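Whether sequence alone determines local backbone shape is best considered at the level of individual chains. The sequence in question and its structure tokens are set out directly beneath this paragraph.

===
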Amino acid sequence: MENHSFQADAKQILRLVTHSIYSEKEIFLRELLSNSSDALDKARFVGLKDGEFRTVDNPGIRISFNEESKTVTIEDDGLGMTKEEVVENLGTIAQSGTKKFLEAMETGDKLENLIGQFGVGFYSAFMIADKVVVDTLSINEDSEAIRWESDGNEGYSLAESNKTNRGTTITLYLKEDSEEYANEDLLKTTSKKHSGFIQWPIFIGEEQINEKKALWTRNPSEITDEEYNEFYKHITGDYSEPLAHIHLNAEGPVNFKAVLFIPKKHSMQLENMNYKVDLSLFQKNIKVIEHANDLVPHYLRFICGVVDSPDVELNVSREILQKTKVVEMIKKQITKKVLAKLKEIANEMPEQYIEFWNDMGIILKAGIPEDEKQKTKILELFRCKTSKSMTNWRSLKEIKEEMVEGQDTIWQLTNVTTPEQIVALPILEGFKKRDWEVMLLTDPVDEWIVMGLNEYDEVPVKSVSQGQFDDEEEDEETKENKDKATPLVEWLSELLEDEVKEVRISNRLTESPSVLVDDEMGMSSNFQNIMKAMNPTGAMPEAKRILEINPSHPLVKTLADLNTKGTAGIEPFARLLLDHATIAEGQLKDPQGFAKRLQGLMEKAASAL
């Protein structure tokens, strides 16, 4: 016999597992049965590979008990463990055997529905047991059986085992306050409650106690939220509960059943071009496709669950799936139901919806330009920050309903920065003066979103950075300033013809001397910046922008007077108008020239003192 000490703060972690992590003692059975299911999944997968492996007829899980000795035993015909694996998986409290297993499988056909966190789940046994004995025999024929034994305190012992069948047997020596678990009825009830969806048969004596019927084929009214949540965790490996579930039973032109989940957080792999949805396609409980990407549109790729349809051909391939009318009909129904569920959440649980939008809004809103048929429904789900609401997300409906008198357009501004930075841009000065709310869109994808967002509920949606800004009623002083600035505009147009497309008097500025805007029919500067960032070495023609000047600003008024008088040497001052506009955007393109002009002006100012 070998004696070993636990690694890495074992006593503290064990105390957390046995007293804090789990709210009820009965969870131990769920955790151990989940581990057994994992082991059987792994054994099936390994058995498909070349090599010499121990085999078992009719593999499954068996639970037994002894009322006299007060023990509960859980045995599976799974992968089993070698001595080294026992030390690694059970000797380190928080070691994830499942994670290690997946990392070792260097193949594209990995099992991705394993429950995981073997170490922590296994040690939940010490909530009800003061001693745990594990006898295990690896699937590898060249390994020997090993026994692991521990009281959950300082360490564990290893010894030879007389186990002859592949798999793992866990014997729990019950604590006095947990002896009620050495009871057939309680074991049956607890197993059914937590593990009814496990695909491997679970037996107590001769009776199989887990349901043979797949969750998605059952009546939704008979399924508890806890069962849905456990199923979600089982198929995704997520340890948190989903935001919502959808249970479908469609009959008609196409027949299918589905259990779908909207997670609270999206998987980071969904941000990759080669993402895989956690949505499996079954036919009559037989898995056809592990990751059925084509069952949901790109913008709903966060949806996970199971779809089962007898109308889908068994030999369907990914290419055939994409062209199948049945699949397109299933996709349409799923999309409709998911969008309806999201609308329900937005209306009835607005705080939870905002949390969802914070995480997955960047994915969902891509459907606005992608899916014309569902565009109206997606717009109802759209949220954004605005110039009037920097902390709270706003819907398009709210923005429209609160448009002020004289405003006939919903305005938006795209800029890859933060709402706090974008709201300070000079281009918004006229909108603040008129008390017009502006949508602040700061995600790179927003540039594509607005391409498909020309109106909402019969109200035009326009960019504040493109085109002319209509005149408002002006006083005599403003009219006079515009008249005086007109010759300056003509002179600046010639001076800056290589840098800008046009120079014109601005109706949108109130405080700043100048601002750059985009041509109404041209490519936006934000879009150009995004494309450059995506392909920094690629050649891309740069569209010239329009320089607008504020005729009421002191600098512009002074330049207008000097220009009218024909004063020489004002070119550096004039170019400062363009410099100011680019600096305000954080886009200064000629820092050396700006520094030289600024130095000259400083020298003139100093000499005049």
Remarks:
- The two ends are 94 Å apart (CA to CA).
- The first helix runs from residue 10 to 21.
- The first strand starts at residue 2 and ends at 5.
